[in-house]
Write a structure and sequence with these properties.
The structure is a homotrimer.
Chain A: H1 8-15, E1 18-21, E2 29-30, E3 40-44, E4 60-64, E5 76-80, H2 83-94, E6 110-111, E7 116-117, E8 122-123, E9 128-129, E10 134-135, E11 140-141, E12 146-147, E13 152-153, E14 158-159, E15 164-165, E16 170-171, E17 176-177, E18 182-185, E19 190-193, E20 197-200, E21 206-209, E22 214-215, E23 220-222, E24 228-231, E25 236-237, E26 242-243, E27 248-249, E28 254-255, E29 260-261, E30 266-267, E31 272-273, E32 278-279, E33 284-285, E34 290-291, E35 296-297, E36 306-308, E37 313-314, H3 315-336
C-alpha cells in the first residue's frame, strides 16, 4: 500500500506506550498477526488473540495492558492504554495521501455565479454546483459530484465522486459522503388516483445532516414530505442503506450495510441497526437500543433493548425461538427413526 | 423550507373545501400536528388523530368530512372530501422551485450530433447523450446524467443527476428517474465454462418503462437477456431496488426500498412488494397481491393474496406461526420455572 | 432489438449442430418458446420444456441431444451438445453494437498528465482519470466515470458510466464494472471516542479485483482497513451487493442481488451467495458452499455445505423447520375447530 517505513521508536513517538523488547526491523505496514511478514506491525486488543503472537512473523505488536506475551528475538511489543486508539494512530501514519487536487477549483467544474465557495475548498473536475449553493472552508468535492441549488456543505466536509446532493439540503461540518450516495431524493409518497392509479404527493421538505456524520457509498437519504429528514451529529451510516422521508436520527447512531428505515422512523441517540435489518414506518426506537442483523422491526423499541429476528423480538427470546425450532427438527428425526 | 405565505382564504381557493372558524395568521408551511407552530397548517385524514388537534399549535387543519373537531380561538379548519388530495395541493402551493436551468442546453453537455432533443427539453451540465438517443419535449435531464446510444426518453420525463440509461432502453412520458439509478445494466446470466469457471451469457435485450413511472434513487433495472424487462404504466419503485432481467411489471405496482425481483419475475397490475422483500426468479404474482416487508417469496402467488414471512405464506398463517413461536418460548420458560 | 436476420443454415454455421427439418423463414431474433413469433428462434435445454414446442410459433429451436421433438411444417430444430453454449453464441450473433466512441479519448475527458493510457483504450466524455492511474490496452471507460489516483485498470476491462474507482485500487483484465458501482470506498470502522461518540478508524488499504470479474450496478466493494479487500478471478457479483472491508473472495464465486458480506468475510472458491442473503463479519465459507436466498449466516460454513434460513442452518433442516411451523399452524386450527 505504502512506501513509508518507520523504526520501533518512531512509531512509539506517536502512540506513546511502553516498549518491551527491541527490534532492528524497519516497519513498513500494519497487518494482521496471521498474515504479517517480518517487516510488519500488528495489534492485540483482546486476550483471546494472545496465542497468535508466537507463530506470527510480525516484528512488533501494539497490545493492551492486560496482554501477556514475550517479545522474542529481534521482536518487540508496545503496551498502550488503548490499542484501538493506537491502531488508528498507526494507520494514520502509514496512510497514503488522499487524491490530489492540482488547483483549488478545476477549470471543468461548473459553479453557478451565485454559489459561494469557502476559502481553500477544493472542487474537482466535472463537478456541478448549482445556484446559491454554499461550500464550506476546506471542503473537498471530488470529481463528478452534483450539488443542486441552495444546498450547503459544511467546513472540512468531503464529498466523494458520483454523489448527488439535491436542492435545499444541508450537510454539516467534518462529514464524509461516500461515492454515489444520494442525499435528498423525493420521499416515496403516493395517493390513490382514479386516472392513473397512483399520484405523486409532492415532497417539499429537505435533508439536514449534522456534523461528523458519514454517509456510505450508494446510500440514500430521502428528503421530507414537508419539514426535514434529520441525521444527528456523529451518525455513521454504511453502504446501500435506505433512510426514508421524515426519519429522524439522534446522535451517534450506527446503521450497517443494506439496512433500511421506512418513512418517519425516529431513532434516539446511540441506536445501532445491524446489516440488512429493516424498520417499519412510524416506528420509534429509544436511546441505545440495538437491532440485530437481518431483523425486521414492526413496532416501537424502548431505550436500551436488544432486539433480534424477523419479526424482531427481544434477542434472548429470538435465540430461544431458534433453539426450539432446532429441537423440534431433531425430535421429528428421532420420531421417524 | 420556503418563504411563501398564504391566508386561510388563499389556501381554500386551491382546495375548495368548507371553512369552519377563522384565523388571521399568515400560513407559512405545512407541518404535522405535533410539531406545528402557530403559523403552520396541518392535516387530519383519520379519526384516530382527531385528539391531537386540541394540543397542536397549528392555526389551520385540513380535515376529512368525518372528522369532528372545534376550531378554537384564532384557529380554523377546512373540511374537504379528500384530505389526501388537498394535502398534495397544499404541498404543491408551498413547494420551492425546482433546480434552475439557466439555458435549455448547458454548454458543457455532450450531445451526439445524431441525437434528437425535443422542444424545450432542458439538459444540464456535464450530461452525456449518445448517438441516436431521443429526448422528449419538456424533459429535464439534470447534471451528470448519462444516456447511451439509441435510448429514448419521453416527454416531460425528469432524470435526476448521476443516473445512467444504457443503450437502446426506452422510458415513457411523465416519468421520474431519481438520482444514481441504473437503467439497462446487463442481466446476471452466466454458464459453466471449463476454462474460466463461468462465462457470460450475452444480454442483448433492453428495458422498456411505461408512462408515469418513478424509479428510485440507486435502483437498478437490468436489461433482458433477449427481449425486454418491462415496467408498466404508473409503477412506483422506491430506492435501492433490484429488478432482474426479463422481469415484467404490470400497471401501478409498488415496490418499497431494498426489495428485489430475481430474473423473469412477472407481476400483475397493482401488486405491492414491501420493503426488503425478495422474489425468486420465474415467479408469477397475480393482480393486486401484496407481499409483506422482509418476506421471501419462493413460488407463484394468486391474484389478491396477501403473503408474508420467510419463506412467505399467507399473512394470517405467518402471524399464527409467529404467535406459536412466542407461545413455545413462554412455555419453555414456564417448564424451567 | 435488432435489425439483423439469418437463415437456419447461417445460424448453424456458428453453432455447428445437426439440423432436423427445414424452414424458409428468415430468423430475426431469439425468443422464449411461449412468446416467440414465426420469425424467431428458441431453445430447449431441459426435457420438461419439450411440450412447449408444439404450441410455440418459433420456426427454429436449438435443443440438447436428449430432447425429442418433431420439426413440423416449415419448422426445424438444431441438435447440439451444449444448448447453453449455443444460446450464448446465437445471442452474440443478434447482439447490437456496443455504445459508440467516435474517437479513442473524448476531448472532455480529464486525464491527469501522469496517468498512463493503454493502446486503443477508449475513454468517454466527462471521465476523470487521476494522477498515476493506469488504463490497460483496449479498455473501455464510459462517460462520467471517475478513476482516482494510482488505480490500475486491466486490459480489455469495461467500466460503465457513473462508476467510481477510488485511489490505489486494482482491477484485472477482462472485467466488467457495471454502472454506478463503487470500488474502494472506506471500510466501515469506528472506535468509541469520548468527545464525539465515534471516531473514524483510517481505512488505508485498497481493493484488488482479479481477471474476468463482473461487479454489478450500484454494488460497493469497500477498501481494506489495512491490506486489501480481494475479489478472485472469475467472480460474478450482481447489483446492489455490499462487500465489506478486508473480505476475501476466492475464484468463481457468485453473489446475487442485494446480498452482503460484513467485514473480513472469507469465501473459498465457487461459493454461491443467494439474493438478499447476508453474512456476519469474520465468517469463513468453504469451497463450493451455497447460501440460499434471504439467509442470514452467523458462523463458519464447511466446504460444499448448502445453508438456508435466518439464521442459516443446513438447507434440509431449514426445510424441516418450515414444514414443522406449517404443521403447528394447521394443528392449532384443528384444535379450535
Amino acid at each position: 500500500m505504502s512506501t513509508k517505513s518507520f523504526s520501533l521508536e518512531e512509531i512509539n513517538q506517536v502512540i506513546k506506550g511502553i516498549i518491551v523488547g527491541a527490534t532492528s526491523q524497519k516497519i513498513t505496514a500494519p497487518q494482521q498477526l496471521e498474515t504479517a511478514t517480518e517487516n510488519e506491525i500488528s495489534f492485540i486488543g483482546n486476550k483471546k488473540y494472545e496465542r497468535l503472537w508466537q507463530d506470527s512473523n510480525a516484528c512488533v505488536a501494539i497490545v493492551n495492558e492486560d496482554i501477556a506475551i514475550a517479545p522474542g528475538e529481534n521482536r518487540a511489543f508496545i503496551k498502550v492504554k488503548n490499542a484501538d486508539l493506537a491502531l488508528a494512530q498507526v494507520l494514520e501514519l502509514f496512510a497514503g495521501t488522499p487524491p490530489l487536487f492540482h488547483q483549488n477549483i478545476h477549470p471543468t467544474a461548473v459553479i453557478d455565479a451565485s454559489a459561494v465557495i469557502g476559502e481553500n475548498a477544493e472542487i474537482g473536475a466535472n463537478v456541478y454546483i448549482g445556484p446559491k449553493a454554499v461550500i464550506g472552508k476546506n471542503a473537498r468535492i471530488y470529481p463528478n459530484v452534483t450539488i443542486l441549488d441552495e444546498s450547503t456543505i459544511g467546513d472540512r466536509t468531503v464529498i466523494w465522486s458520483g454523489s448527488v446532493v439535491r436542492e435545499r439540503c444541508h450537510i454539516g461540518t467534518d462529514c464524509i459522503i461516500h461515492p454515489n450516495a444520494t442525499i435528498g431524493a423525493d420521499g416515496f409518497g403516493f395517493r390513490p388516483c382514479p386516472e392513473r392509479g397512483l399520484a405523486k404527493i409532492p415532497q417539499i421538505g429537505n435533508v439536514i445532516i449534522g456534523n461528523w456524520v458519514e454517509i456510505g457509498a450508494n446510500t440514500c437519504v430521502d428528503r421530507g414530505k414537508f419539514s426535514s429528514t434529520i441525521i444527528g451529529d456523529g451518525c455513521k451510516i454504511d453502504n446501500l442503506v435506505q433512510i426514508g422521508h421524515n426519519s429522524v436520527l439522534g446522535k451517534y447512531c450506527i446503521m450497517a450495510g443494506n439496512s433500511g428505515l421506512a418513512g418517519s422512523v425516529t431513532l434516539g441517540n446511540g441506536v445501532i441497526i445491524g446489516g440488512s435489518a429493516s424498520i417499519k414506518d412510524h416506528t420509534t426506537i429509544g436511546d441505545g437500543a440495538t437491532v440485530g442483523a437481518g431483523s425486521g422491526v414492526t413496532g416501537d423499541i424502548p431505550a436500551g433493548k436488544v432486539m433480534l429476528g424477523y419479526p424482531a423480538v427481544e434477542a434472548r427470546d429470538a435465540l430461544k425461538q431458534w433453539a426450539i425450532l432446532k429441537r423440534l427438527v431433531r425430535e421429528s428425526g428421532e420420531k421417524k427413526a
